Task: inverse folding
C-alpha cells in the first residue's frame, strides 16, 4: 500500500470526536492498557473544542478513513523561555503502519511547533516499544536516558493538595 495523494492530515473537528475516541481505544488496546481508558467521548470533545481548550488533535485519513491521530498540548521551557508542544499520543492503526502515516503526523506536529515558535517538541515512549523508539530516532528524536516521568493521579492529587 502506498498512501501518497490519498493521505490527508488535518486538524480534528468536533464531528471527529467519536472517531478520535475510537482511535484512542485502539491505542490503549495496542499498549495493553484498555483497562486504563476511563474517560468518554463527551469529555474528550469538551477538552478539544470547549473553552478553555486543553488539547488539540490532528487526524490522518487514508481514502476517507481515519487511520491515525496525534493529540498534543502546550508545555513551557523556563530555560528557553518559550512554549513547547507535548505530544501526548501518536497512533496509526496497525494495518496502515510502515506507509509514511506516522511520519506525516509527526512532521505536521513539527510544522505546527515551528509556526507557533515553540522551542521544543517532546513526548514519551514506552520502554518495551523498541519499534517506536527506532522510528523516533530515525525521525531525529533523542531519547533522554537521564529523565524519568513523575505522575500523581486523581486520588494522589487530592492527598497532595490536602498537605498544603
Result:
Amino acid at each position: 500500500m502506498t498512501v501518497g495523494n490519498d493521505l490527508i492530515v488535518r486538524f480534528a473537528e468536533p464531528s471527529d470526536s467519536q472517531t478520535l475516541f475510537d482511535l484512542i481505544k485502539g491505542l490503549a488496546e495496542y499498549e495493553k492498557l484498555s483497562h486504563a481508558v476511563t474517560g468518554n467521548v463527551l469529555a474528550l470533545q469538551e477538552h478539544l473544542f470547549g473553552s478553555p481548550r486543553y488539547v488539540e488533535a490532528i487526524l490522518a485519513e487514508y481514502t476517507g478513513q481515519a487511520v491515525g491521530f496525534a493529540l498534543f498540548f502546550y508545555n513551557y521551557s523556563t530555560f528557553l523561555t518559550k512554549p513547547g508542544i507535548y505530544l501526548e499520543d501518536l497512533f496509526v492503526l496497525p494495518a496502515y503502519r510502515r506507509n509514511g502515516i506516522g511520519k506525516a503526523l509527526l512532521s505536521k506536529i513539527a510544522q505546527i511547533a515551528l509556526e507557533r515558535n515553540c522551542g521544543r517538541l517532546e513526548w514519551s515512549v514506552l520502554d518495551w516499544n523498541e519499534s517506536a523508539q527506532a522510528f523516533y530516532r530515525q525521525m531525529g528524536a533523542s531519547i533522554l536516558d537521564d529523565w524519568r516521568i513523575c505522575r500523581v493521579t486523581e486520588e494522589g492529587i487530592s492527598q497532595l493538595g490536602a498537605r498544603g
